[in-house]
Design a protein that fits this description.
This protein has a 7-stranded mixed β-sheet with strand order 5-4-3-6-7-9-8. By secondary structure, the chain is α/β, with parallel strands linked by helices. Helix content is 29%, strand content 27%. It is built from 6 helices and 9 strands. It has one domain: 3-Layer(aba) Sandwich (Rossmann fold), CATH 3.40.50.150.
């Protein structure tokens, strides 16, 4: 058992290593565990100067971890306005207000707006409530080429029995406890 207060998670590495993030008590937020985040970023390698989209952001742990490790910017999408208050607080506590944008919206509307803006992201985190992963995959599959840059990577989290690939051949797939992590890319291999 860690000496960490309940309801918080820790940034694993980078400029804000060890800093704590608040977790809302309501809203059904399930932050990606430190072990899984560390494994994901070890697989991704350097993320410096990447533009990130964190869908179903919750605490912002994935996007904030990327920023701590040198990512250029992050757009966070979070539907629950109460959870978004905690997310903004975490962004402010880490001093990343100048490189972040929080979109408080249903993910389908947010995705439609982002596609219309024609902004592409180098790194996309997809960690929805597991019960809607199949629906999210159907929504995202036709948008992948519009959302990801030419060498973009999407990291998809689901329960261990799920398999979401957004219509792509997975470049990486592994189960960590109850979580399956799948990575797909618009390039041929992850370095």
């Amino acid at each position: 058992m860690s000496g960490r207060p309940p309801g918080v998670v820790r940034i694993v590495a980078g400029a804000r290593r060890g800093r704590l993030l608040k977790v809302p008590s309501a809203g059904g937020v399930r932050p990606t565990s430190e072990k899984v985040r560390e494994a994901i970023f070890d697989t991704l390698g350097p993320v410096g100067d990447l533009d990130v989209l964190d869908l179903f952001a919750g605490t912002g742990a994935m996007g904030l971890e990327a920023l701590s490790r040198g990512a250029r910017s992050c757009v966070f999408v979070e539907e629950d306005s109460g959870v978004a208050v905690v997310l903004r607080s975490n962004i402010t506590a880490l001093g990343y207000e100048h490189v972040c944008r929080v979109v408080v919206s249903d993910y389908k509307r947010a995705l439609n707006r982002l596609v219309q803006m024609e902004t592409r992201y180098d790194l996309l985190f997809v960690d929805p409530p597991y019960r809607i992963l199949a629906e999210v995959e159907v929504t995202l599959k036709p948008l992948v080429s519009s959302l990801l840059s030419d060498c973009g990577v999407a990291v998809i989290e689901g329960d261990r029995s799920s398999r979401a690939t957004l219509g792509q051949t997975p470049l990486f797939e592994r189960v960590y406890g109850d979580t399956r992590v799948t990575m797909i890319s618009t390039r041929r291999s992850i370095p």
